[in-house]
Structure formats: structure tokens, C-alpha cells
Design goal:
By secondary structure, this protein is an alpha+beta fold. The protein is built from nine helices and ten strands. The two termini are about 40 Å apart.
Length: about 260
């Protein structure tokens, strides 16, 4: 660790700032699984704070099972992987469906409303059109890792029953139950942070980083059949890309809407 670490944001408690720094080092692999963390005394000197402040920071990490304290031996990084096993993503609709089958869903809201102004173009609907709005959490190992907000044209969404979403991915319902021939999707990926509404749903803190994906799905006639926004916990989902000449191979973490 580098000495002389500066933590001077007066609006954020010191222990929280220290916990965030240590968390990043653990999640990035700088502190590898099973490795011994510096002692409380060393960390207090490093950050120029009291040992009580260090204990508060370590308690937060321990609560999230990122570290293990062993009396008389020290504090160790947890041996358990923090992220879920990542399946290969080749860029096909089938990959999204497959990943959805391996996870579970919790429905927050299922309503009929007017299409929001910001997605009228994406769904190619006139202003004031009805849409079905579906708000959900997706979980793996009983822990939430993504927040999903779907909008479907009313003619499509009205045929979907909430209970079906508990046992089958939405894309699978569109294909199998509604016989829609899914052909392609356009999506945008960007970084964002958790607000006061999303944070408790994903069991993160306000201001924690999230990965945001917006996707429009089209059928074989190029009709937009779904618009979805997904927010992923940054500590449980990541995106990597291996680039080669005339070839791109992508790899995603859990992803399904």
C-alpha cells in the first residue's frame, strides 16, 4: 500500500472512505483471496486515523464477508469469490436467455402506463401510447445483483402474466408463449451510481458504482418489442473484451431482462 493516503472529504465519514478504498483493493484483486491484510495499527498509521476508525471500516467489510478476522492471527481476505461465475457471452439472444434461466426474479411492480417521453423513439410508439411497465430484481444465490425496468408495447405486454416471469425469462416468454421471432438488439453501456431508491433494492450504498445497460429488442420484422434498462452491482458484474484483428470476442457477467 502507498503511504500518505489522503482522505479529506468532510461530507463522508472517515471509516466509510477507508472501507471504500479497502473494498476496491479487494475486489480488484490487489488484495488477493486468502492474503493477510495490514494490521489495524499499520492501517491507522497509513490513513492517519485512530484504530477505532479502522475497526469501523473493517467491520463493514466483515459484514459483507469480504474479510475474515482470526484472533491472534490477523485479518484475511475471504477465500470465497466475490463475483459469480461468468458465462461466455457471444453476442446472441440465446446467451441472454440462458443466463436468465440460471437466476431468479423478484417482481416489484407490474402496471400499465403511458410510454415515457424518453423511450417513445426507442419503442417507435406515438406519444401517449400505452405500455406495460415491469420493475424487477434479478437474484443469484438469493442475493440481488441487477435491477430491471422493462417497457413493452401494450399489445405485447398485456399478454404476459406476472407469475410467468417468476419461472421463465422475459425473452423466453416472448419467444415461446407469444411466438415472437426475436432477431436482434441494440444496447448502450455506461457507468452510473446508486441513488436512494436503487441502493436498498440492490443492497448497496447510495453513491456506489453501478453498470447501466439500455437495450431495445427487435423482432424479425424490425419491430421494437421491448425496451429495458438494467442496473448491475459493479462488484458482481463486469464486462471484458478481447480485441483481435477483424475479430471481437466479448465476455459478460450475468445479464438478462
Amino acid at each position: 500500500m502507498n503511504k500518505g493516503v489522503t482522505i479529506n472529504n468532510k461530507a463522508i465519514p472517515l471509516y466509510y472512505q477507508i472501507e471504500t478504498i479497502l473494498r476496491k483493493k479487494i475486489l480488484s484483486g490487489e488484495f488477493s483471496p486468502g492474503s493477510l491484510l495490514p494490521s489495524e495499527e499499520a492501517l491507522a498509521k497509513e490513513f492517519e486515523v485512530s484504530r477505532i476508525t479502522i475497526r469501523q471500516a473493517l467491520s463493514l467489510l466483515e459484514n459483507d464477508e469480504l474479510i475474515i478476522r482470526k484472533r491472534g492471527k490477523g485479518t484475511f481476505v475471504s477465500e470465497k469469490p466475490v463475483s459469480f461465475e461468468l458465462p461466455k457471452f457471444t453476442g446472441s439472444i440465446e446467451d441472454l436467455i440462458s443466463m436468465g434461466i440460471k437466476t431468479s426474479t423478484k417482481i416489484i411492480d407490474f402496471t400499465v402506463t403511458q410510454v415515457p417521453k424518453n423511450i417513445t423513439d426507442s419503442l417507435e410508439l406515438p406519444k401517449g401510447s400505452k405500455v406495460v411497465r415491469i420493475e424487477r430484481l434479478r437474484l443469484a444465490e438469493k442475493s440481488p445483483f441487477s435491477y430491471i425496468l422493462n417497457y413493452l408495447p401494450y399489445s405485447i405486454g398485456k399478454k404476459i402474466k406476472p407469475d410467468h416471469l417468476l419461472v421463465k425469462p422475459l425473452l423466453k416468454i416472448l419467444e415461446d408463449d407469444l411466438h415472437i421471432d426475436l432477431a436482434e438488439a441494440m444496447q448502450k453501456i455506461e457507468a452510473t451510481i446508486a441513488d436512494s431508491y436503487i441502493a436498498p433494492l440492490l443492497e448497496v450504498r447510495v453513491g456506489d458504482p453501478l453498470l447501466k445497460i439500455e437495450r431495445t429488442v427487435f423482432d424479425s420484422s424490425k419491430r421494437a418489442v421491448e425496451f429495458v434498462t438494467v442496473l448491475y452491482r459493479a462488484d458482481r458484474y463486469f464486462y471484458t473484451a478481447r480485441l483481435q484483428r477483424k475479430k471481437i470476442e466479448n465476455s459478460f457477467g450475468w445479464s438478462i431482462a
